[in-house]
């Protein structure tokens, strides 16, 4: 008799459990909001590095200045590589909206190649400067320069790793809503790096060659 009486209570308990705990609550667009907050924190990091360069950018300590070190044609080519990668990523987003998986993966691959070209030219520039005796320990100017430019380069490296991982996820699961959300987050990150680099190119390289 006790078992019979206990049955309705257990059924009610199970019904409440399925009603209130069957699905985990996840706010709509919560991921995008969180990623925007992350980008704002990244803005603060780069703002501090730009301020550091503004303070130390003329402290040459008897060493070479930017006008003596910077190879503007090489830096302009490097800038073009990153800007082209932003354009190709835009093509990938357009193809993903049309549900064309193959074209999306192709444009993401082209974006990754442009990103690798950018990193290769940047590493060549660093190696050349260090070979010339203009390493980060040479002066306050070079310390600030390497800190700012290398931090941006690390972000591009992380972006490429993220892009490769996303390509594997797309190839395995297709353009499911989760992968489209990840595409959007990486798009925001990649374009953010382009904006930062335009600031670096203008503030560090172009102004650095001025007397």
TrEMBL record:
Annotated transmembrane regions: 33-55, 75-92, 104-124, 144-168, 189-210
Membrane-topology descriptor: Multi-pass membrane protein
A GO MF term: cytochrome bo3 ubiquinol oxidase activity
GO BP: any one term: aerobic electron transport chain
Domain Heme-copper oxidase subunit III family profile: 28-209
Pfam families recorded: COX3
Keywords: Cell membrane, Electron transport, Membrane, Oxidoreductase, Transmembrane, Transmembrane helix, Transport
Highest rank taxon of the organism: Bacteria
An annotated GO cellular component: plasma membrane
InterPro entries recorded: Cyt_c/ubiquinol_Oxase_su3, Cyt_c_oxidase-like_su3, Cyt_c_oxidase_su3-like_sf, Cyt_c_oxidase_su3_a-hlx, Cyt_c_ubiqinol_oxidase_su3, Ubiquinol_oxase_su3_dom
Record bears the keyword Transmembrane helix: yes
Subcellular localization: Cell membrane
NCBIfam families named in the record: CyoC
Family: Belongs to the cytochrome c oxidase subunit 3 family.
Function (record text): Cytochrome bo(3) ubiquinol terminal oxidase is the component of the aerobic respiratory chain of E.coli that predominates when cells are grown at high aeration. Has proton pump activity across the membrane in addition to electron transfer, pumping 2 protons/electron.
Quaternary data: Heterooctamer of two A chains, two B chains, two C chains and two D chains.
Protein name: Cytochrome bo(3) ubiquinol oxidase subunit 3
Annotated source species: Noviherbaspirillum humi
